[in-house]
Design goal:
The protein is mainly alpha-helical and about 80 residues long. The chain contains three helices and two strands. The chain has a two-stranded antiparallel sheet with strand order 1-2.
């Protein structure tokens, strides 16, 4: 948490076009925007869905509203 709180807007400047590398990608790279849309978000959705499924399988009373969270309705 302390590390995240230490970040400033300047740390994110041009982040969507930065090269993101990973040793397993063997010299290949993605832009920051590609990394988020093709790697980070799918991984988050996968793990949240898997955790939800495990909880349901083990009898925990969770439903779609728990998964989706609050909706920002307006009047």
């Amino acid at each position: 948490i302390q590390y995240l709180e230490s970040l400033t807007a300047a740390d994110f400047k041009d982040s969507e076009t930065r090269r993101i590398t990973n040793p397993r990608w063997e010299g290949q790279w993605l832009t920051g925007a590609e990394f988020v849309s093709h790697h980070a978000l799918p991984n988050i959705y996968f793990h949240v869905t898997t955790a939800y499924s495990i909880l349901r399988h083990n009898g925990v009373d969770v439903g779609k509203k728990d998964y989706l969270g609050p909706m920002p309705f307006k009047k």
